[in-house]
Design brief:
The structure is a homotetramer of 453-residue chains. The first copy, chain A, contains 21 helices and eight strands. With 453 residues, chain A is an alpha+beta fold. Chain A has three domains: 2-165, Butyryl-CoA Dehydrogenase, subunit A, domain 3, CATH 1.20.140.90; 169-302, Aminopeptidase (3-Layer(aba) Sandwich), CATH 3.40.630.180; 305-451, Malonyl-CoA decarboxylase, catalytic domain (Aminopeptidase, 3-Layer(aba) Sandwich). Chains in contact: A-B, A-D, B-C, C-D.
Chain lengths: 453, 453, 453, 453
Amino acid sequence: MNSSFFGDMLQTIADRGRALLAGRNRRVSGEARTATLIERCEDLLSGRGEASGTALAREILIDFQRLKTGERVGFFEALSNVFGPDREALRAACEDYAREPTEAAASAVHEAAEPRRQELVRRLNLAPGATAALVAMREQLLDSLPLRPDLAGVDYDFVHLLSSWFNRGFLVLRRIDWSSPANVLEKIIRYEAVHEISDWDDLRARIDSPDRRCYAFFHPAMTDEPLIFVEVALTREIPDAIAPILSRERTLLDPREATTATFYSISNTQRGLTGVTFGSFLIKQVVEEISRELPNLSTFVTLSPVPGFMRWLAAERATDSPAIEPGDREALAHLDSAGWQNDPRKVEELRAVLGSLAAYYFLSARTKHDRPVDPVARFHLGNGARLERIDLMADLSEKAITQSAGTMVNYQYVLADIEKNHEAYAEAGEVVASNGVKRMLRPEKARALAAQP
Amino acid sequence: MNSSFFGDMLQTIADRGRALLAGRNRRVSGEARTATLIERCEDLLSGRGEASGTALAREILIDFQRLKTGERVGFFEALSNVFGPDREALRAACEDYAREPTEAAASAVHEAAEPRRQELVRRLNLAPGATAALVAMREQLLDSLPLRPDLAGVDYDFVHLLSSWFNRGFLVLRRIDWSSPANVLEKIIRYEAVHEISDWDDLRARIDSPDRRCYAFFHPAMTDEPLIFVEVALTREIPDAIAPILSRERTLLDPREATTATFYSISNTQRGLTGVTFGSFLIKQVVEEISRELPNLSTFVTLSPVPGFMRWLAAERATDSPAIEPGDREALAHLDSAGWQNDPRKVEELRAVLGSLAAYYFLSARTKHDRPVDPVARFHLGNGARLERIDLMADLSEKAITQSAGTMVNYQYVLADIEKNHEAYAEAGEVVASNGVKRMLRPEKARALAAQP
Amino acid sequence: MNSSFFGDMLQTIADRGRALLAGRNRRVSGEARTATLIERCEDLLSGRGEASGTALAREILIDFQRLKTGERVGFFEALSNVFGPDREALRAACEDYAREPTEAAASAVHEAAEPRRQELVRRLNLAPGATAALVAMREQLLDSLPLRPDLAGVDYDFVHLLSSWFNRGFLVLRRIDWSSPANVLEKIIRYEAVHEISDWDDLRARIDSPDRRCYAFFHPAMTDEPLIFVEVALTREIPDAIAPILSRERTLLDPREATTATFYSISNTQRGLTGVTFGSFLIKQVVEEISRELPNLSTFVTLSPVPGFMRWLAAERATDSPAIEPGDREALAHLDSAGWQNDPRKVEELRAVLGSLAAYYFLSARTKHDRPVDPVARFHLGNGARLERIDLMADLSEKAITQSAGTMVNYQYVLADIEKNHEAYAEAGEVVASNGVKRMLRPEKARALAAQP
Amino acid sequence: MNSSFFGDMLQTIADRGRALLAGRNRRVSGEARTATLIERCEDLLSGRGEASGTALAREILIDFQRLKTGERVGFFEALSNVFGPDREALRAACEDYAREPTEAAASAVHEAAEPRRQELVRRLNLAPGATAALVAMREQLLDSLPLRPDLAGVDYDFVHLLSSWFNRGFLVLRRIDWSSPANVLEKIIRYEAVHEISDWDDLRARIDSPDRRCYAFFHPAMTDEPLIFVEVALTREIPDAIAPILSRERTLLDPREATTATFYSISNTQRGLTGVTFGSFLIKQVVEEISRELPNLSTFVTLSPVPGFMRWLAAERATDSPAIEPGDREALAHLDSAGWQNDPRKVEELRAVLGSLAAYYFLSARTKHDRPVDPVARFHLGNGARLERIDLMADLSEKAITQSAGTMVNYQYVLADIEKNHEAYAEAGEVVASNGVKRMLRPEKARALAAQP
């Protein structure tokens, strides 16, 4: 993205801004750059910004891109320290409010508490291509956060502004297919996070068959950047394994004969938008879109990974966990021998055990916040889906064997139940699951679960 | 806009939302409506909003449109009282900050001080067509404000959000011409605020000649609503009257022979966006755009009204103002006789006097904030233009005779001077004017002006 | 169209062709112009055309536009005489074929018989905007034909080429609505030939209601010129009068509740394309399009004028026609008194008579080619529609009273019967009509009709 | 293309045509298919075609695609025999013309001589996607021609119609870059005929650099099929070798600093359009387009292969040709040892000889039609370019070594000279060449050349 943004920038400067930028000596010493940048940010917030804001914002964003890592952190520090709220004004507003807590006083506090960097970022967005540049800037901020937790306030403000700008109401759903622009498609290849796309032929197999669909959200200010995309397979049954879906040799299905739409991959593309969520909107809107096109579709499910299963199981095996029956441990030991998935006997023995453990993992295991352990489960259950089926040995890729011993699951979206399911989950942490999944639980565990308040 | 929004809404509901909306009795009594609406707003802010936010937001916006005036004010009241900040949390955050004014404490204050209605409005924006509906809602809020100053806090939040959403970086400049969609053109007819467009033929004369241009800013979420537009005449000289520009009988000019682009009308279309400014960006971007297309253009000026001149002059005449020389009053008395503009002798006598008074009005008269009295002057000078020329008897329409005795002015935009001019104005209130304008000032006034600090 | 074409031309020349056209003295005497033009046409057909054909074609088309009427006829004469086939070659080819009628000899005859003007027109089409210019040229040729029947061969070649270029496979169906470009809409206003559109408000009432549709065919080389358009009303019954459809006060119908699509106006826009037919394709494709959008539609009819009825009736009345019963003549005499349509008694008496006469006009009256007398009937019956209903007093406009005593008819398109109906009509001249229409025929006429072979 | 066409077809049938096609038994025996197809073609030409032509045309085209090779030839045979002109009518028309050779009689001959297959192909074009299908059909006809010269008349008619439909006036120039649709880009990869594109990365290097351009002509009825495309390198000098242009490691040039546009590859994509030429238009229009964008460009050249050089030279060497000096033969013998291009000494010796021989090949060698031997030379010289420079050892690829011993040439397009050059070439076969090229000729050859009439 940087490169494309940079291309745009250079082009744009060339076209429009030359005169404005001329005469500035750009070969300043490394140390001086951050200082200069901060000065210009002050200019942008001042009157100069009103007169020639666009050119100034452009300059700042380009110069920021040229900073080295350390200099960038220096710039973020300045955002934190120099572009915070006016402390004196804030203290006064707080005191006023303490004295008389009126609407107006609350408003005054809110205004005084707004860090100056918010307005700064709004003005930086004046430049052409700036939105993408600011998302990239936030990505670099995220890189710094682990070592510099003191920059959390800056990040908070980025998330605040980006959430407002990337409001669902401004996003545009577009179908991605073989007639989409190459610069969009290459990002699908690059960003696919669930089931890797190896090259253009692989991509084509995914999006250019009559029984496959791909949709993405776009923001009008970043028209060649898909923000999140979902890949869909049209099938006649709920699939229980990923290989037949990804296979290039499969028999094509006439889409009008499909009954089931399977969402088998959802990927966010912009790390700089972490914390700004649109996944749930995407699934629901694609369900609407695809139903209109193909009225015969009646079932909408995912085929999802279970990324936390093995990590959780390892922890349970390491302790005297009630989740694991004494008799299970022998079979589970197979997991420790590399290549077990190629040994039919081991697979057979594990199947019996893994099914009930996976059911336990989803239905009974809990985080300290009393939520399911699996992050993907939290996402779909939070969206109002229900856990429809557990598919053992469904993904034999290296990654899936390691993460989940090959286990995948289907979450089902039933429009009429979404709200109810969501509320059950949101209010009581309840995992809405099919009877099939519940029956996989060993009887005594099922009883224990039923006995929970 | 409402009607088009409504059309969209009805269509969309029909298509998508039927099931979700079914079963609700929509024939509630008038009094109950506001209450129900507020309830749904609470739903939208709660978990329900996360599961089926789009449908809920749509419902609320449609129901709001159906409210009668009184009910609407009731709804705004609720936004003010019920959807303000959490007062308890805010008090606590303020106390924390008072105790220890850290970055984090300031952040906490800011978060606690944010009224819940901001998040509510963000979520309302989920619905298709919502952005236009929210702009319309704010227009109705503006209608209530004069009688209900207590709703100012609600308005503040609308402006805050709309400013963020309508950031210049998201606006798209589009040329308006005879191949533009009719639903856009009808808005140009409707919203032209400076020199009325009487019908489609009149519109065509304005936008479909080779020596005329019209540009507008659009927001991606309101694609058939121009937000602000400017009309441009390409000429060979700086024009000193409006009639030749508007005349349908004028000789057409080959645009490649034009040297001057005259901005003779700028109109905002969305009253609901009052306070969100993009006029200055529009002019500058059109200058860039049009220069690229027609490299021969070297002069960029406005032909602008002087809306405050007669009001100011009446006030001066009513007092013993130093602005008016004793000898002027006889000529000025002509202004009180209707139709003076048709009497060549009166016009002649007034010309001598009005010129120097207009120069005084621009260069010496000041508001209590030490700024020029004329609002249009404040706009262009604040943008970095300079006052190039005063044109007497330049607009003989009823409106202009009343407002300015027919006076118009040219503000000139010289790209290289914009920043400097802006700073002179912003910092010292200085009115950058041509020597020609300065010379219109009577010598003693000019001396007085020069002597000012 | 000329003006827009001219605009394009001038623009294009300005942009591209200046150098190529420079140095030519364009102020030649009127008489010399045609000669010069013909010379350039020879150039275009020669080598020069291959090297710089585009510029040359442009020149010729522009110069043609500047010719005066007489000069144009001179140019068409040249097309006829100078740009015919090579007579010597044709004679030789004919002799060869007479000697030995092989495939190859036939091919050689065809090649030799092709007038040089066909290749000339193909090369003229190289210029930007040329297709529209050539359609306009043919329009002017049509104007000359009545006085100059010797130009028929030139017209034959124009039709041949235009039919090939405006092949249905190249036309694009587009919906026309209030978001269509103004330069397209103004042509709808201008070209509506059946029920006049008085102004933009009138247009809007026709195309911007949820229960109205308008579709047009466009050619990719003339993107702002609708070639033919049809106006459709969505209703719940087959309409029997035009006024309720055109009324601006009617109650709007939710399109999803409509069962019937009524084609109430079809207009060709390009007189220069006379003889190139696409009306039948338009109706059928709109039926498909609109059915997809609104699956509830089950009935597709026209509400059509009967332009030949009164002319035919006058002729019958002037003779001792068997079509007219002796008792009818008294009532028919009312038609001769202006304003009869406002006298309820006269209307009443005429109704009884006109119905059976109209049925006779459609079912029994015949041209010398044994086809129905009414041209609109020939069009729709030839397309495979059937005559569904005769509507008396259905159009009270001046024009309709004069043409048809206010009579209109509904032709119905039933997809499953189109082919069968067409064949019945094409092979046997059979008028497929509903029983209702047949019953309007007086018994003895009906018997006579049934007795026909 | 077939596959995409088929996709469209299947889709379209599904959408629209189902009912019409139902009930037909499609499992007919192989032998019966051609017969059935011909029957339907007769239907299409008859009344049935007028009523339901679109569906019928669609059927025929799909069924044709399903024919096996032999059956296809059978179909072409039928086009030749069954759908020729009406022989009786043609004989009569010829006789009439022989008797009295009037305009009208010539017209009648032309009409009678038109084979019925022309109208058939025009009607086949009614179906959606038909234009591409007909181009594909003609490609298959071309495959049959070598064995079946009797089908030449059918081919003649295809060329006639396709030339009319693909008239330059209907083609659209579009820039191809990294934001072009993938289904267009894959065709660039597939069809590049001069310098192979190995994969998507290679493609990107060619079209997504600021100093590279690619343009193609499209037809509105085949929007995802480039018909012909040209690749352009922006440089500061006329390049004398291809490797630096294709290198992915080259330094990028700011396009605004380029002075020269080099057309280094032109490829036709549609074999089915062989004989319909647009290459010359493409180059000229790209020159215009690119000049507008980059006014600094002053030189427009090609870097072209010399495909016939070695074949010609081999023939000369085999005889006692005056082109070859006795002393040359030793050096020329190097060409017979594989890998000579890697031996600096051999290269050195060859250089001295190949240069003058290449000059002879271009300037003196002639076909029996008195034209240059090299087909690429004939193309560019016929377009009005001049032979600017001979570049030895300019392309070291296997193919180029074989075809031309690595020789390439630059043809230069000077807008002001195009017409003059074209005429010199067209009328006298003159090869317009730079002095540099002429000087490469050995003195005595040059004298001989100069002495030619």
